[in-house]
Amino acid sequence: MRTSWIVAAALLGGLALADARAQSVAQAQAVEAGRPLIGTPAPRLRLTSIDGDSIDLGDLYGKKAVYLKFWATWCIPCRQQMPHFEHVYQTAGADLAVIAINVGMNDPLEDVRKFRGDYGIHMPIVLDDGRLAKALNLQITPQHVVIGRDGHIRYVGHLADAALDTALADARSSAAQPLRRGEGKTQAIARYRVGDRVPDIAATTLDGSVFRARDSADRRPTVLVFLSPWCESYLAGSRPDVGVRCRQVREQVDALARAGSGVRWLGVASGLWAIPRELEEYRVQHDTQFSLMLDESGEWFRAFEVSEVPTLLVADATGRLVRRVDGFDAEWPSELEHLLKE
């Protein structure tokens, strides 16, 4: 009995150590992503909470410090940090605005509302439409962004630790000074939907080749497969239904690509919680037959308004988007056959 207890303790200790290492790596990744932002004007954006309340970030600068936390309901460390997040909100006072920014990836509104009730959180919640993720270099979840009362970014990190608490205290004590006109202004994001022609954007694939979304020299139809290299593994525990759909779509697309169906295929992998090495490991593990690229900046996901994986977008030979498939659809390949015959 004692031996079993020792083994169990050793296993738990090993898991805890592995988790600590993963969190340390994530913290380093968040800090690196935030490095070019430190000291720069924070984005001026008007947001709407899931309760319909308007939040004007630009109006807060010069009056309050602002704490933005990117998170997702399926994110395990986000769940672990929620008590700390709620405590900060409850003790914020009048000089700190606390806002929860859901990353809007595989998180339906009903799931977010349920999570709020289950975890007893009360701060305003916003579903990001991609603008904040772009402006604040979102790389992982949770990702903390602390903005001083002067409207400049002071801290970016992943852990809910002493460094974050210190940053929050410093931000609240910074001098209140509004941004100058034009500072923090963000550019609008061009969006492309069914019926539109795909934009002239390009990506470098894992094998080093350049893939253009619209290629006048290649008149084949194009299928963009939006995915995540951790969808089938990580979400097997927190969102098993999504994990299954990711596997089904990967197998479906692989089969079509192996058949040589006269289509340009590109797997567009989310840069959230992913680096090139992990995407390469995904390709090797599953022996994928279609080209893969890592959308590190989120440009492709934002351009095509993709908020869940897997998602498929089909463009005809002229580059016009003709079909969108959210999740798994066993029937859509027959539509592709008709498209190839046109």
* Beta-strand content bin: 15-25%
Please compute the radius of gyration using only Cα atoms. 22 Å
- Tell me the number of structural domains: 2
* CATH domain class name of the largest domain: Alpha Beta
H/E series = HEEHEHEHEHEEHEEEHHEHEHEEH
Poorly predicted sequence stretches spanning 5 or more consecutive residues: 1-17
- Going by CATH, the architecture of the largest domain would be 3-Layer(aba) Sandwich
| Average of per-residue pLDDT values | 91
Name the overall outline. elongated
**Structural class of the secondary structure composition?**
alpha/beta
Give the % helix.
25-40%
> Strands across the major sheet, in which order?
5-4-3-6-7
Distance between the termini: 71 Å
Summarize the structure.
This protein is of the alpha/beta class. The protein contains eleven helices and 14 strands.
Describe this structure in words.
There is one protein chain. The chain has 342 residues and is an alpha/beta fold. It has two domains: 13-173, 3-Layer(aba) Sandwich (Glutaredoxin), CATH 3.40.30; 202-341, Glutaredoxin (3-Layer(aba) Sandwich), CATH 3.40.30. It is 38% helix and 20% strand. It contains eleven helices and 14 strands. The strands form four sheets. The protein has a five-stranded mixed β-sheet. Strand 11 (264-270), helix 9 and strand 12 (291-295) form a beta-alpha-beta unit. The longest helix has 33 residues, at 2-34. The chain is elongated and about 65 Å long. 36% of the residues are buried. Residues 1-17 have low confidence and may be disordered.
